[in-house]
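Chain entry —
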Amino acid sequence: MENNIYKTKFSFTQEDVNKFAELTGDKNPIHINEEFAKNTVFGKRILHGFLGASIFSKVFGTEFPGEGTIYLKQSLQFLKPMYPDFTYTAVFEIKDIYKEKSRALIRTYILNDREEIVIEGEALIQNKIYSK
C-alpha cells in the first residue's frame, strides 16, 4: 500500500458467473447465454454487476485492512460492463478516518485494462486498526 491506496488484480471466469447466477437466482441470459448476449449492445456475456463489486467485500475482509473488518455501507455506480476472463484492478483509497469510532471512508473503484473506471463507489468500514 502506498499513499493510503491499495490495489489488487482479479478476474472472474464464466464458471464463476454461472455459479453466481445459480446462487442469486439472477439467470438473466445476458450473463449466461452466449447466443442471447451476442444480440445485445455488449455483443457478448457480461458479469453481474454485484459479482464484479464483490471484490470489495473480499478485499476488506481478507487483505485491506483485513481480518475483523465490518462492512457498514457501500455506494456503487456501474459505469461500464465487465466481462468474464478479463483482468481488472480493484483500487481502494482512504478518504477519511474517524478514530473515535474506528472507521474509515474508502473510495472503491475497478479499472479495466484501458484504465477506465467500470465500477465506482464509496465504502464505510470499521476496523480496530483505525482507532490508533
The two ends are 18 Å apart (CA to CA).
